[in-house]
Amino acid sequence: MKSLHDTTTLHNGVKMPWFGLGVYKVQEGEEALQSVKSAIKAGYRSIDTAALYENEDSVGQAIKESGVPREELFITTKVWNSDQRNDSVLEAFETSLVKLGLDYVDLYLVHWPVKGKYKQTWKVLEKLYKDGRIRAIGVSNFNINHLEDLMSVAEIKPMVNQVELHPLLAQSELRNFCKKQEIQIEAWAPLGQGRLLEHPVLKEIAASHNKSTAQVILRWDLQNEIVTIPKSVKESRIIENANIFDFVLRESDMEKINALNENNRYGADPDNFNF
Fold this sequence. Notes:
Layout: E1 7-9, E2 15-17, E3 21-22, H1 30-41, E4 46-48, H2 56-66, E5 74-79, H3 81-85, H4 89-100, E6 105-110, H5 118-130, E7 134-140, H6 144-151, E8 160-164, H7 172-180, E9 184-188, H8 200-209, H9 213-223, E10 227-228, H10 235-241, H11 251-258
Parallel strand pairs: 3-4, 4-5, 5-6, 6-7, 7-8, 8-9, 9-10
Antiparallel strand pairs: 1-2
């Protein structure tokens, strides 16, 4: 992994960048437009959005204005829970596509494992994939039990599982399971929603490399073969976050960071959510 353009190969052969921009809680309009444009200008090629984020319009506009050929970009969006419950997954996908102004998306995810619905939702994603509307399909916030349940009926195995993952929630068991199943793990909230930036152990490691704490965490992701999508709306931070290809964490650094795990979630528990 030597640049922002480096990719992992999903089990269907599609190449996905290891590093991208997340836009959760980035406001629709100028904020989302400028953050995505700044990221693409800085060399990012992967942008992760969702119907829930309500900024697909601005993401699409930024893609259009970037001047970068569509085939060089990797765009992810997700189907929200209410559309699973209302059996309107296909309509939700079409709406996302129109908002993004795209003919296809590179990765479409089931946003949460809505009980009694996600297997039905997956069948719709499988059809969209077979029809060539989506280059890869996957899930988000699925634990091992959800993945096993889904794969018991799936014709096509998920290519990606995007979950909350950071040094205080290392998800080792889930990562090992996904690796065995050839499901690429991807981290949302890789910086613990900013809560980890002042962690003393991480700060100490960062100082030894003359890097920021965020850069150390994101480098830890890459060295653990975790796709990572940090969010920022500041151009300077967007550039800084991606400046992680000129150093390598030592084995002792990796061990110290691995030891920080507390199974500490900042987001909802996939086994117990009510939205």
